[in-house]
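To illustrate the input format used throughout this study, we show a single complete record. The first block contains the structure-token representation of the backbone; no residue identities are included at this stage. The design step must infer an amino acid for every position from geometry alone.
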């Protein structure tokens, strides 16, 4: 859309990239706020609420068809007060009204379309609608006219409907269903994942296929606890299948949002920061378990993409890259055979096209998505790998001259925390200092720009402005990141920050009546209901992540109140989880931690001591997920403030020692790296 001679609407004053995309619409948009609701009351109009995000393909389609259309805008402006919300800035608003949509229609997604009263009570909800009716979908123009008619003639019916919806959700779907988790819930979860596993291409269920990395990290832990080789096989085949598919960008690296087909071939091309962070963690842990080069290399390629394309100069990480460029989904990423041959030359072009399935007829709308589906990776020799890499670099440079997809450059605390956690684990497992440097810089950015000393944590930063009181996810994910930073650096500052932030989270988000954590802090009151969430969808839920954080903090600090709070989270949502446990795989990781013997590992020695560093190296080689570790050296200050029991440890005559404590009992100190390796061994069964 050309903006020449267009008058911007109120959204022009916003920072959200998504809202700014709509600033030249003829729709009289308002941002969420009291001005819009006051206008709706004063003019006796319903609210038209539209929720989306900047890299959402169907949001763009709906904008082109309806919100840029003068006829549609005139109808909307006449009868409604219209509000635009960026779901990534305001996940609280999105969650409440998405729950409404799912309850009313049985499905959800974005764009989310809601019509409600001026006191925020919804009576209509859906997702994408075309302007005019087609293919069984009602037209949005027709819907607006019908709603106006009912609003004017049968309004009481709409008001009663809105009251009933909010009342039902406030006592049910938005609060969680308490109950006790069965002892065999982890086994049931594994069985459900096993049954839905695609043995041909990896992943779970049918198309569309989502990466669901927390399913995989659960399976790694389940296999560890139960010695189940099939759990690991499912993880390996899924991670290999995703890498081979077009969901992975074989030219520029990084993963797209999801695959539209079962083979992982044709993605929805947008790239999200959180997907890449969580997938990096899954590949890293699988490398730690298997020592297979593929999994290490894929994690390194994810980080290469993030540090090259998604890192801000200030230190934070951008949110996403769009699926569309030049108004066409995937145009930036696809190739034709003649194009590749022209860039690489006949011989190298034919080689690359043959390896990556770039044929004359194409595999995606007449063009080709590079992929390795059907290839056996172990049959690609070193010479071919080297040759393919040179071709890839040349194609990457050529692709860089294309018009790039739009980049959403807002910096979200929660998503940045996930990438910090991934980079910290990457630095720990792979020994690459640049990953640690990037993670440290991002933590510094959050502490400087998004963590107010008086006002607490904030959720979003863009264009010099930090805004929105942080949500549960921001707190829980950042505690996770800080714990990973501590176990990578053993610098007490990170553990201190984690304890302080976790304390603020419990103070401001804890449900004293039913247990568990609300999505918004106790000061937030602008929504008709205060939601809680446990579902581990594209992102793990804040409650699930918090539960595991609490168990790790209990082990690290010796404070049993953390374990009690984790138990209360399980109880608060037990009824929901027991019904379909494979939908809560992040929470199941915490439950496995609780049910399995956990270990506290204390390594004592002067900073830089060779024997101590060898034992730390052993710990980093081994996959011991239900363990926490601390490093105590005489030079450190402040660690005993948060880990009081360390005051009881004294360095023995040897230069360094490791203490392994399990089930409230500590073994004799170990002074040799190989003896330490043997002692870690395999987990004991409770």
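Output of the design step:
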């Amino acid at each position: 859309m050309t903006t020449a001679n267009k008058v911007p609407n109120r959204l022009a004053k916003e920072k959200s990239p998504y809202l700014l995309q709509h600033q030249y619409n003829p729709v009289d948009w308002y941002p969420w706020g009291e001005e819009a609701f006051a206008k709706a009351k004063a003019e006796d109009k319903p609210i038209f609420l539209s929720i989306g995000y900047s890299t959402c393909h169907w949001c763009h389609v709906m904008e082109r068809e309806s919100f840029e259309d003068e006829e549609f805008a005139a109808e909307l402006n006449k009868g409604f007060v219209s509000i635009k919300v960026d779901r990534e800035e305001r996940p609280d608003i999105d969650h409440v009204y998405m729950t409404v949509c799912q309850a009313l229609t049985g499905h959800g997604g974005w764009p989310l379309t809601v019509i409600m009263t001026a006191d925020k009570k919804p009576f209509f909800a859906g997702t994408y609608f075309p302007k005019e009716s087609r293919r069984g979908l009602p037209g949005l123009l027709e819907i607006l006219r019908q709603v106006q008619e009912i609003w004017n003639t049968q309004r009481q019916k709409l008001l009663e409907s809105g009251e009933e919806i909010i009342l039902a959700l406030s006592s049910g779907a938005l609060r969680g269903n308490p109950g006790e988790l069965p002892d065999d819930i982890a086994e049931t979860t594994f069985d459900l994942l096993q049954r839905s596993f695609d043995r041909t291409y990896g992943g779970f269920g049918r198309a569309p296929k989502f990466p669901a990395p927390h399913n995989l990290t659960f399976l790694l832990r389940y296999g560890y606890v139960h010695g189940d080789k099939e759990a690991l096989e499912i993880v390996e085949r899924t991670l290999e299948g995703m890498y081979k598919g077009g969901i992975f960008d074989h030219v520029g690296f990084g993963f797209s949002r999801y695959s539209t087909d079962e083979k992982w071939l044709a993605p929805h091309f947008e790239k999200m920061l959180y997907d890449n962070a969580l997938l990096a963690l899954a590949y890293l842990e699988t490398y730690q378990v298997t020592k297979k080069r593929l999994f290490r290399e894929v994690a390194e390629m994810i980080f290469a993409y993030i540090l090259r394309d998604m890192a801000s100069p200030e230190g934070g990480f951008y949110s996403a890259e769009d699926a569309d460029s030049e108004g066409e989904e995937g145009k930036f990423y696809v190739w034709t055979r003649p194009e590749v041959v022209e860039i690489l030359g006949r011989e190298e072009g034919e080689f690359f096209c043959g390896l990556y399935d770039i044929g004359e007829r194409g595999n995606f709308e007449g063009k080709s998505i590079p992929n390795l589906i059907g290839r056996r990776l172990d049959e690609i020799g070193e010479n071919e790998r080297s040759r393919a890499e040179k071709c890839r670099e040349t194609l990457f440079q050529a692709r860089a001259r294309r018009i790039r997809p739009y980049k959403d450059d807002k910096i979200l605390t929660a998503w940045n925390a996930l990438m910090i956690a991934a980079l910290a684990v990457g630095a720990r497992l792979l020994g690459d200092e640049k990953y640690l440097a990037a993670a440290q810089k991002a933590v510094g950015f959050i502490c400087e720009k998004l963590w107010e000393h008086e006002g607490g944590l904030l959720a979003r930063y863009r264009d010099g402005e930090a805004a929105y009181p942080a949500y549960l996810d921001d707190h829980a994910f950042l505690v996770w990141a800080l714990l990973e930073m501590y176990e990578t650096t053993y610098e007490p500052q990170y553990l201190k920050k984690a304890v302080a932030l976790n304390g603020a989270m419990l103070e401001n988000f804890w449900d004293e009546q039913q247990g568990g954590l609300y999505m918004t802090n106790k000061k937030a009151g602008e929504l008709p209901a205060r939601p809680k969430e446990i579902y581990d969808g594209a992102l793990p839920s804040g409650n699930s992540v918090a539960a595991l954080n609490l168990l790790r903090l209990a082990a690290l600090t010796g404070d049993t109140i953390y374990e009690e709070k984790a138990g209360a989270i399980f109880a608060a949502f037990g009824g929901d989880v027991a019904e379909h446990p494979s939908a809560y795989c992040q929470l199941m990781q915490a439950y496995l931690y609780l049910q399995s013997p956990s270990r506290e590992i204390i390594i004592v020695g002067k900073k830089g001591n060779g024997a101590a560093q060898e034992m730390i190296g052993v710990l980093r080689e081994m996959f011991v997920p239900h363990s926490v570790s601390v490093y105590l050296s005489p030079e450190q200050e402040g660690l005993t403030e948060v880990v009081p029991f360390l005051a009881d440890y004294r360095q023995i005559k040897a230069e360094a020692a490791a203490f392994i404590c399990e089930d409230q009992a500590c073994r004799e100190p170990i002074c040799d790296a190989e003896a330490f390796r043997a002692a870690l061994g395999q987990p004991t069964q409770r």
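Structural context for interpreting the output: The first strand starts at residue 29 and ends at 31. The chain has a mean pLDDT of 93.
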